[in-house]
Design a protein that fits this description.
Number of helices: 4
Number of domains: 1
Structural class: mainly alpha
Largest sheet: none
Number of strands: 0
Amino acid sequence: MSSWSSGDAAVLPSQADLCERAVQAIWRSLDRHDLVDEHVRDELAAILDPLTGLPLGNRPQRLIGVLRERNPLDPSHLYWLTRRLLTLVPELQAIEHALDEPAVAVRRDTPIDAIGTFQSLD
């Protein structure tokens, strides 16, 4: 991650940028089957760390904990990690999309089908 000082607020990535970066890092790691590499997991944990403030419950912390386990990574943990990362991707994309769009007020007479909702897979 890039370093920044309090005077460089323009370099600080937005939450949408953080979500996008996390999604790209997850796909890159899964595509290359790199999650068995301790250094790759450490890098991915560092990318996910700023997302702990998003409305994702304790899942980022749990993922980070498994990502930071030392080698050899237990096969059951690797399986759990892969599945959880895959379920996190659509949530991060939904958050990224919501952060990029202007807020829309929902009125009482708005049809239920017109309200965008997202349901977690957990």
